[in-house]
Amino acid sequence: MTTESAAAAARATVYGCPRQGQNRELKKAIEGYWKGRVSADALRATAAELRTANWKQLAEAGIHEVPTGDFSYYDHVLDTTVMVGATPARHRATVDADALDGYFAMARGTQDIAPLEMTKWFDTNYHYLVPELGRDTVFTANPAKQVAELKEALALGLTARPVLVGPVTYLLLAKPAPDAPADFEPLTLLDRLLPVYAEVLADLRAAGADWLQLDEPALVQDRTPAELNAAARAYRDLGALTDRPKLLVASYFDRLGEALPVLAKAPVEGLALDFTEAAAANLDALAAVGGLPGKRLVAGVVNGRNIWINDLQKSLSTLGTLLGLADQVDVAASCSLLHVPLDATAEKDIEPQILRWLAFAKQKTAEIVTLAKGLAQGTNAITGELSANRTDLASRAGSPITHDPAVRARTAAVTDTDGRRSQPYDERAAAQRAHLGLPLLPTTTIGSFPQTGELRVARADLRTGRIDTAGYEERIKAEIQEVISFQEKTGIDVLVHGEAERNDMVQYFAEQLTGYLATQHGWVQSYGTRYVRPPVLVGDISRPEPMTVRWTSYAQSLTDRPVKGMLTGPVTMLAWSFVRDDQPLGDTARQVALALRDEVNDLEAAGTSVIQVDEPALRETLPLRAADRPAYLDWATEAFRLTTAGVRPDTQIHTHMCYAEFGDIVQAIDDLDADVISLEAARSHMQVARELASHGYPREAGPGVYDIHSPRVPSTEEAAGLLRTGLKAIPAERLWVNPDCGLKTRGWPETRASLENLVAAARTVRSELPAS
């Protein structure tokens, strides 16, 4: 195909859509089902309505080929586990009895059966359920969901492309089952898995699929020769099948690198590449392999992970370069639109000028269609869109909102000394022990307590004017009193105020910092039915006044035990926001760190002796390529130290991390120089404790003994067993006892029971320690 004909054939597509609905209808239906208020049929009907609405909106916008199979009740990797029949043995009876309840049991667990482990999807804040595989795993094809959803879209008269997690990525994301040998690698199951994928492909072809997308984002990471050979074998075998749709292998989040020649040679009909995160690298690599003659290239030129408008002229230039490198060039977002909110026009409280800088899923879809039209018909066909886009980009670049000279001057004046504690850890630890007087195996929680219906009603009443600020604050005080009273009665050693006043751990701070923008309807799925509204980092950051001191001090006035001050750290404030794309992330992190440093110092001055600065996103934001990690970790750990280094030696600094693989960043955890770190560990059976010990981590740590992302209540013996495992890696004088994460999403009955068992477990294990 000539360059001209390739341009004329350009089409618009996307890889996936937000699942929740405009008013989070899916969340409400699923949680209603869990509580017995919504039937299974009603839940399925809601899901079908949401899928249809997504497809129709895409088609009406001008998307030529809609995705199917990307919809999920909980997680698309869990859907893949169901599709290939890899249900863990402990869940099979539940799945056999009721497929839907069994599905949710794998995601959330039951009182008697632990769920699958959950961790971050590459470097995003989306969580997936980790497949558990062993040498005896037997795969069986079960593509009923994927086939049914394809038929739904085709019945609407749409051109549809099923989207599946690719076999190589699925195995690379998996972990060995609990009974698997220590040296077992799930990728060794590839030859057993490929025939199941072949069966799925044949069923989808029979159902009407012309094209099928296999997502292989794991191939943008550093891969060994053996892993690249596995990818080559997988796509050689799948490509050789005769009974299959045409195959589009998709990568995103980074450069494809050494995997690009492997896939370019494979007998597949198309590749999808990210030209936002790694535009230059993927362009160079594509040219180096001689392009993709005879193949389809889907070019992800619209950023699917951030919310800023696209530079249409720049993207058209990239697309023009690509025309000579493939037989057909289509236009898409860089990844699934799952990672952005639905529609920016729903934001009625944002200044209209600023709103024109933002593009949520609906606006990104329009950008993709505009670019495809411009590529196919020439720029004269989109003159109006290009002119408006130039105006909006210039408006943002020249706005005083984005530049505060005082903030930039303060950031420029930072020195190395500002990021160092005044004394080494050993001296600080002695001062803190003398000051706090805590027992061995001290107990605490991570920060938040259940956000009750009464609290949500109080916020709604405040928004609608049914109560005034004074009335709302009285309700918050009553909630804090209850939380403090419960912790004292239970016997917890270091208390928290429960964060009753906070709607979200990032949004709460963003709403009080200059340079941040909060949304009202910008919901994004984090995991399952957990949705968050990431704020937008729109300008330079500063803190006009204290944000947490009042409530922390009030809680401390109710008890003689230490109450932790609770802050969200600078890296997490970036990771769980939509960040600026007009300056380096490290520069933004320093601005946030200095604002938080002011808050830390004010907390200490108000008498707070323990201050926790949470950084659950430190691992999540780690670049996917090893070569890019040192620079990131340098500014990320510097930002944490800049936040915390200004306190006295006897003020104890905590941090918290959860739901990530920590082995890659143990040195960075050490470099934070926090006095105590609490980490998720319950689902992974204390793996992180072993990783810390192997590194020689010298400070105090609290690997979690209570999995808060499951409704089940751990028994005293279960928590004690995890503690005993932790003690094999961390000595008692440095081991803390705590849940995996905050308790915001849990109910009070299970929280009470779980924390009472946690404290009882600590006392039990304490009594087993040798007398000093």
Question: Can you describe what's shown?
Answer:
The protein is of the alpha/beta class. 44% of the residues lie in helices and 12% in strands. The chain is built from 29 helices and 20 strands. The strands form six sheets. The chain has a seven-stranded parallel β-sheet. Strands 16-17-18-19-20 form a five-stranded parallel β-sheet. Helix 25 (629-644) links the parallel strand 17 (610-614) and strand 18. The longest helix is centred in the N-terminal third of the chain and has 22 residues, at 40-61. It is globular and about 75 Å long. The termini are far apart.
List keywords for this structure.
772 residues, 12% strand, 29 helices, alpha/beta
Largest sheet: 7 strands, parallel
Distance between the termini: 81 Å
Q: Give the tally of β-strands.
A: 20
Shape descriptor reads globular
Percentage of β-strand residues: 5-15%
Main-sheet strand order equals 1-5-7-8-9-10-11
* Radius of gyration, whole Å: 26 Å
Overall pLDDT score: 95
List the uncertain runs: none
Helix/sheet category: alpha/beta
Give me the number of helical elements: 29
Briefly characterize the structure.
This protein is an alpha/beta fold and 772 residues long. It has 29 helices and 20 strands.
What order do the helices and strands come in, and which of them pair?
Elements: H1 3-8, H2 25-34, H3 40-61, E1 66-68, H4 76-83, H5 92-97, H6 99-108, E2 118-120, E3 127-129, E4 132-133, H7 144-155, E5 160-165, H8 167-173, E6 175-176, H9 190-207, E7 211-215, H10 225-239, E8 246-250, H11 259-265, E9 270-274, H12 279-288, E10 292-302, H13 312-322, E11 326-333, H14 352-355, H15 361-377, H16 383-397, H17 405-412, H18 425-436, H19 453-464, H20 469-490, H21 507-510, E12 514-517, E13 524-527, E14 530-532, E15 536-542, H22 549-556, E16 564-568, H23 570-575, H24 585-605, E17 610-614, H25 629-644, E18 652-657, H26 666-672, E19 676-679, H27 687-695, E20 700-703, H28 716-727, H29 748-768
Parallel strand pairs: 1-5, 4-6, 5-7, 7-8, 8-9, 9-10, 10-11, 16-17, 17-18, 18-19, 19-20
Antiparallel strand pairs: 2-3, 12-15, 13-14
